[in-house]
Amino acid sequence: MKTTLKLLSISVVAAGMMTLSGCGDDSPTHIEFDESFEMVLSKASYYYHSKDSLLVVTPPECKASTLGYVVWNKKAEEADSLKAYRNGEIVSYRPLREYNWIKNEYNGKSFPAGIWYEPRAVDQNIMNAKRFLKNGVVEEIFRYEGKCFASSLLHQLMKKNKSIEQADSALAKFYVMFQPENDRHFDAKEMLDDLRAPKCNKLTMYSGDVSIGMNNFTKNSGTITLGFGKKTCNIKFKLRSAYDKGDCEAAFGDFQDDKAADRTFDFNKYSESVDYDIYCIKRLVLTMQEEKKILPRSVGSDEDADAAADELARSAVRAVLSGMRE
Questions:
Q1: What does 151-209 look like in DSSP terms, one character per residue?
Q2: Which helix (H) or strand (E) holds 304?
Q3: Degrees to nearest 5, angle at CA 41 with 234 and 311
Q4: Is the Cβ–Cβ distance between 42 and 140 less than 8 Å?
Q5: Contact, 121 vs 12, CB < 8 A?
Q6: CA torsion, points 91, 96, 100, 104, in degrees to nearest 10?
Q7: Distance of CA 85 to the CA centre of its chain
Q8: Which of 35, 222, 232, 326 could form a disulfide with 227 if both were Cys (CB 3.0 to 4.6 A apart)?
Q9: pLDDT at 290 over 50
Q10: Confidence grade of residue 26 (pLDDT, cut at 50, 70, 90)
């Protein structure tokens, strides 16, 4: 089953893990969320044929052509086909040519329209799910209903799946950026032991030297405050959707401007627009280089310095969003 159909896993917030991370009652800092706060992470199109219980989900297409220009279509050529049916408040589905049924809870009236999600645990405050709208659009959503976001997010990162243990995860890539370039290594246990949530809007690492603050979260945007010691820089981000032609073109534009881009365009690597003070980030990088001899990228020009700052800013945003996405 392709990733467009994977219902995001739900992590249970473990009460016994507060020794690893905590939001102290004396902390005056928190994130204000609307009731039933949620972010829409992605969109796709779907079609349901009730007579044979066939559900077809078609992701959007945002890619580079062989001639080097961007190609966008609301519906890609390839789609995911499943068998899906409802029995009361339970949805059962499986990809075609597979035989194991997956069951989710269902909240809705006109199947498949409604919210599909994994059974929720007691006191669970994070939910990832799919919302099927009546207009033929399915949204991947992240919903938060708790009181201490940083602590919940940290537990989500720890518990959600095994990808956190891989060196190519977004959080792992961000973490190793702060190690000397000639001695970089990734140790999942070391990283997870080092991560903390000292306040409800802040994660820290490297014994608190590096911090990530989170503020002003809406359904598709937010502000990340990257800190090193007492120096901080705000990074505003807005989620992009390949379902939107303008977002696709903007992501491709970032790819073209990226001096360290891969050979081929991947929308997911540019699925957030970021806005920050380039001079603030560069000063932050310089401080890290001088005081801790970290982030020792060889900077031969202003262009190289800008690229290093952009990489750091985007990595900070991805590190947070990786706790919301699969």
A1: HHHHHHHHHS-GGGGSTTSHHHHHHHTTS-GGG----HHHHHHH-EEEETTEEEETTTT
A2: helix 302-321
A3: 40
A4: yes
A5: yes
A6: -20
A7: 29
A8: 232
A9: yes
A10: very low
